[in-house]
Amino acid sequence: xxxxxxxxxxxxxxxxxxxxxxxxxxxxxxxxxxxxxxxxxxxxxxxxxxxxxxxxxxxxxxxxxxxxxxxxxxxxxxxxxxxxxxxxxxxxxxxxxxxxxxxxxxxxxxxxxxxxxxxxxxxxxxxxxxxxxxxxxxxxxxxxxxxxxxxxxxxxxxxxxxxxxxxxxxxxxxxxxxxxxxxxxxxxxxxxxxxxxxxxxxxxxxxxxxxxxxxxxxxxxxxxxxxxxxxxxxxxxxxxxxxxxxxxxxxxxxxxxxxxxxxxxxxxxxxxxxxxxxxxxxxxxxxxxxxxxxxxxxxxxxxxxxxxxxxxxxxxxxxxxxxxxxxxxxxxxxxxxxxxxxxxxxxxxxxxxxxxxxxxxxxxxxxxxxxxxxxxxxxxxxxxxxxxxxxxxxxxxxxxxxxxxxxxxxxxxxxxxxxxxxxxx
Length: 425
Hints:
Elements: H1 6-32, H2 35-43, H3 47-56, H4 59-89, H5 94-119, H6 121-138, H7 140-156, H8 171-179, H9 187-198, H10 204-207, E1 209-210, E2 217-218, H11 223-231, E3 237-241, E4 248-253, H12 254-264, H13 268-274, E5 280-282, H14 287-297, E6 301-305, E7 311-316, H15 317-325, E8 339-341, E9 347-350, H16 355-362, H17 374-382, E10 391-394, E11 397-405, E12 408-414
Parallel strand pairs: 2-3, 5-6
Antiparallel strand pairs: 1-7, 3-4, 6-7, 8-9, 9-12, 10-11, 11-12
């Protein structure tokens, strides 16, 4: 060092600071780069991405290599700064040089390169990967010794160094990623992806047609009554029961029944013949599992039953698919038929609307793990059947009971807050 001129020492110090900035910035770039984008680019043949991905498979080695280099150049820079200070001002200048070097390293070799790497990780990560791959091979014995001690200390503290989950996302984390992908994904695509993720959280009771709303045919009715029920039904597949809805003997397609009526006349025996054996679905079945069950069994309609075998409602493949793609309708009003706007701008809602449909229509977040309808939610909250005119708040949403019956709430009015106009999506 005594043979080097003062300009040479300054040049060496600047070179060390550049190397320190490289190590600091590349460390941040490699550790913050989007792993899924990195995997995609590596699979498409990007050489820098493939090398970076291989390095990140063993982050302990990569971090050991980077910190080994970074600490070495920083210590060398500190030594050079001390020599320069001694030549320029003697021992009294050493303290000034240490403070000045600390400020320079902090600004130019730490904060600036790391901020840039955070904003543009790929610009630093891929070039750095070309440097670190051969450097790791050269310094592997030193890095191995460093990792031997560090991994040993981590194991003593009960921290596993292998088999970590890494970048795997939970369902909720994946929901957050999809929800925030507004620039990348159109709203319609985001809604469909979120609908698929929601299939894991919802069960068949959340979307089934409750038993009191199921349109079926009683085999004990007269043939005229049966034909009238088929003609006026809004569903293509209908349950066939004998005496009571609890005694379902099959499910038939209305089209097949009408064809039979036109060709040879529909009688009860023929109706029994075209009815398919009922397919039962246990309550509590997740929607995702039920979608697979429909696919395996080549079914489109299932009868939801409780643990005692009692009929609870009916679920169709169409209803299940609508949870993903939205309502199959050409009229936007049909998708929220239980919600109507009154003359004063408030909303009148049928008490039978499901909580999930209400949340989806009004962008609310009412709980769905309890009662499945608005009527059930209100009765559970009040613990009694309210009188018309009763006001309450559900999850900070003001409601007014408009119409009730002996068995529950029929119509609810949502009162708009001052300064806020409610609108349907």
